[in-house]
Amino acid sequence: MKLLEIKDLHVSIEGKEILNGLSMEIELGKINALMGPNGSGKSTLANVLMGNPKYEVTQGKILYNGKDITELEQDERAKAGLFLSFQYPQEIQGVTIANFLRTALNGIKGEKVPVMEFKKLLDEKMASLNMDPKFGLRYLNAGFSGGEKKKAEILQLAVLDPQLAILDETDSGLDIDALKAVSEGVNQFMNKDKCILIITHYKRILEFIKPDKLFIMLEGKIALEGKGDLVDQLEAKGYGWIEQD
């Protein structure tokens, strides 16, 4: 079943076109990886999918569960089941992870989740991710290491439980232990009713989170797509062989 369809998408920022005719489809129950060199438009695509107003869609459509969401506001996309794990998570002093997550969950559900019900949910998710319960009492990303910031993002993923998770360079700056922990959290999240789009520069995370499909982006569009083992060719040959075809 097609979950996300992007049709001939053109996107500009401050008058400069970044995506120029990008088309792709991803299916429910599948893990997808998106790779490409710096400046190819990967993070732009992630932001556009979540409705970041900085980016102007000048042509094309984004369909999610068959519904056109091209003009949908960010909060409506979140309520519909989209989630973005940021490449550079923001630090917010004075707001604990627990309070942030409860507020976000209330917003998605459109109603207040009882305190004890939320605490039970948070405790369960933190236990499943082998997190210290005190982690939820810390201010969001304040003074966090790179690995702690990414683990906090995966905790958000587990609690908010979206249908489509877009992970923008979640592996960036992680040592091997943090990478394994983050990957385990992502794998726990995934099931037949979910879908993941991992945006990455490196093969390393794809050794722990096995993609069903790999998309390669060059110059603002999908240049090649194939099964997950396509990453081995990319690792061996680089992007030049695609550009020459």
The CATH class, by name, is: Alpha Beta
Gyration radius, rounded:
18 Å
CATH superfamily: P-loop containing nucleotide triphosphate hydrolases
CATH topology: the name is Rossmann fold
Please give the largest β-sheet: 6 strands, mixed
Number of strands: 10
How many helical stretches?
Answer: 8
CATH architecture: 3-Layer(aba) Sandwich
In the predicted model, the low-confidence regions spanning at least 5 consecutive residues are none
Number of domains: 1
Strand order of the largest sheet: 6-7-8-3-9-10
Question: What does this entry look like structurally?
Answer:
By secondary structure, the chain is an alpha/beta fold. 34% of the residues lie in helices and 27% in strands. It has 8 helices and 10 strands. The chain has helices spanning 42-49, 74-80, 97-109, 115-128, 146-160, 176-189, 230-237, 240-244; strands at 2-13, 16-27, 31-35, 56-64, 67-68, 82-85, 164-168, 195-199, 213-218, 221-227. The strands form 2 sheets. It has a 6-stranded mixed sheet with strand order 6-7-8-3-9-10, sandwiched between helices. A 4-stranded antiparallel sheet has the order 2-1-4-5, covered by helices on one side. Strand 7, helix 6 and strand 8 form a beta-alpha-beta unit. The model has no long low-confidence stretch (mean pLDDT 91).
Can you give me a brief rundown of this structure?
By secondary structure, the chain is an alpha/beta fold. Helices cover 34% and strands 27% of the residues. The strands form two sheets. The chain has a six-stranded mixed beta sheet, with helices on both faces.
